[in-house]
Amino acid sequence: MLFVVAMTFIDQTIVAIAAPDIINELGLSSSGMQWVVNAYLLALAAFFALGGRLADLFGPRRVALVGTLVFVGSSVMCGCVPRGSFAQEWLIVFRAVQGFGAALLFPAALAVVVSVFPVDRRGRALALFFGLSGALTALGPLLGGWLTGWTWRAIFWVNVPVAVIAVVLTLLARIPSVRRPERLDVPGALLIAVGMGLSVLGLQQANAWGWTSVWTWGCVLGGLLVLAVFCRYELRVTHPLIQMRVFRDRAFAVDNIVLFFAMMAFVPLFFFASVYAQVSLGASPNQAALYLLYFFAGFAIASQWGGRILDQRGARPAIKLGTGLGAVGFALWAHKLTDLSMHDQWPYAALAGAGIGFILAPSSTDAVNRALNASYGEVTGITQTIRNYAAAIGLAVYGTLLTHATTDHVADTLRERGLSSGTARDAGHSVAEAVTGHGDKRGPESDGPVATVVRDSMDAIRMDFAEANQLVFYGMALALALAFLCAHLHPGTRVTSESEASPPDESASPAPPTPQPSTRR
Fold it and tell me: What's the half-sphere exposure (Cβ side, CA atoms, 13 Å) at 343?
C-alpha cells in the first residue's frame, strides 16, 4: 500500500520545483500554473469521499488497483502535453484526472492498512505509514530537481515504474475483500464536488477578479451554500456518501478541525518555499529541493514520536504540542526569510516540520479510532477530504496574498527609482505574476526604460519578494495558532480497544458491521 500511495505524495511536491520550466516552455496564461498545482488538490478533495465509499462497495483492493491505473494513465498524458494554445487546458484537465485517480487509490490503501491492525497497535502502524509517506513527499522535490535537469515532463513519467511495482505487489498480496452491497450516493458526490469547486474557484480567482468583485464572492458564498445543502442532504439519505453522525463525537470533530488548519500550511508550503528559494535565494531546482529537506527532517522525526505519544497518552498531548511548535516554527521562519540565507533558516524550518509531524498521524489515527461504528472507508474519506480541501483553500488564498503583496512591494521599489505611480504599479504586477508563477510570464517589455529600471532593481525585487513571502508564512503560523486553540477542545480520552470506541448514536440508522482486522499477512 505504500507503493500505491507513493505516487500521490510525490506528486504533491514534485510539480512545484518544475513550475518555472513548465511556464517557460508552455507559456501558460494568467493564473495557469496555480491551476495546474491546484487542479490536482481540488479533484483529490472533491472525490475523496467518493473513493472511500467505492472502496466500501467494491472492496479496497479492487478500487486501489483501478485508482492506480487511472493515476498512472493521466500522469503519462500530463507528460505528453503538446506545445501550443491548448497546452494549459490539457495539463489542467489531466492533472484533475490525476487527482481523481488519487482519490480512488488513497482511501482504499489506507483502509487496507487500518483493517489489518487492531486499535492498540494502529497508532504505531499508521505513524510508520504516514512517516514513510512523509519521506516520499520529501522525495518529490529531490526527484523534481534532478528530473527537471533532463526534462520537466519526466516528473510525470516517473510514476510509471512506481505504478508497475504497486500493481504487481497488490495482485500478489493476500488482501481480504470486504464489500458492502449498498447504493452509491451520486447526488451527494455531485453536491460536494460542485461546492468545493466553486468555493476554491472564487478564492483562487480573487487575484484576477478582485476581492470586491461579485464573481469572487458569488463563487465563494455559492460554494459554501452548496456544501451546506450537501450536509443537510446527507443527514436525510438512507446510504449517504458521508456519515455526518460521526461528527457528533467531539474528539472526532476536533481532530478534523485541527487537520483542516494544519493542511492549510502543510501542502501549500511546498509551492511557496520552492518559489521563494529559486527567486529570492537564487537557488537552482536541486538547491530548492535541499532547502525543503530541512522541513522534512523535523517532520519525519516528529511523526514517529507523535505515534508513540498517541499509543501511550492519546492524541491530545501530541496535537497540542504539534500545533504550538508549528505556530512558533512558522512565525520564526517567516521572520528569517528576509535574511536571504538558506543556512540561517534551517532550525526554524525543522521546527515547523516537527510541528506538522506531531499533528498529522496522531490526529488522523485518532479520528479513525473514534469512528469505528462507521466503516474505515467512510472515515478515511472524511478526514482526507477535509485535509485536501484545506490544502486547496490554502494554496488559493496564499497565492492571491503573495501576488498582491509582491505587486505592492515591487511598485514601491520602482517608484523610488523614478517611475510614475501608474507605470510602477503595472510593472510591479507583471513582475509579481512572473515570479509567482501565476501569470503569463510576459512581464514588462524586454526593451525600454521600464525594463531597464526593473533589471537594475533585481536585487531589491528579490528582497521585495521575500517580504511578500513573509506574509504567507505568517499566515501559515496563524493557521496553526488557530489549530492550537482548537486542540484545547479535544476531550483527551484515549481509545485503546474497539469496545472503548464511541458508541453509535441511538437515533441514527444502524451502521453495517465494521470489518474485523485480518490475521493474514
Answer: 0
Tell me how far the alpha carbon of residue 247 is from its chain's centroid.
22
DSSP character string of 360-406: HHHHHHHHHHHTTTS-HHHHHHHHHHHHHHHHHHHHHHHHHHHHHHH
d(CA 188, CA 27): 38
Q: What is the CATH number of domain 2-173+239-406+464-490?
A: 1.20.1250.20
The secondary structure of 57-87, three-state, reads HHCHHHHHHHHHHHHHHHHHHHHCCCCCCCH
CA 296, 337, 477, 106 torsion-angle sign:
negative
- Predicted structure pTM score: 0.80
Stretches where the chain sits below pLDDT 70 are 28-31, 122-123, 127, 130-131, 133-135, 137-138, 177-181, 371-378, 380, 433-456, 494-521
- Residue 433 CA to residue 412 CA, distance in Å, equals 16
pLDDT tens-digit map of 153-202: 888 998 899 899 989 988 888 777 666 667 788 898 899 989 998 998 88
Q: What pLDDT digit, counting tens, does each position of 375-388 carry? A: 555 676 788 788 88
Residue 440 one-letter amino acid: D
Q: Would you call 474 exposed, middle or buried from its count of C-beta atoms within 10 A (0-12, 13-18, 19+)?
A: middle
- What DSSP state is assigned to residue 444? S
Instruction: Say if residues 414 and 453 touch (Cβ distance below 8 Å).
Output: yes
Name the residue ranges covered by the structural domains of the chain: 2-173+239-406+464-490, 185-238
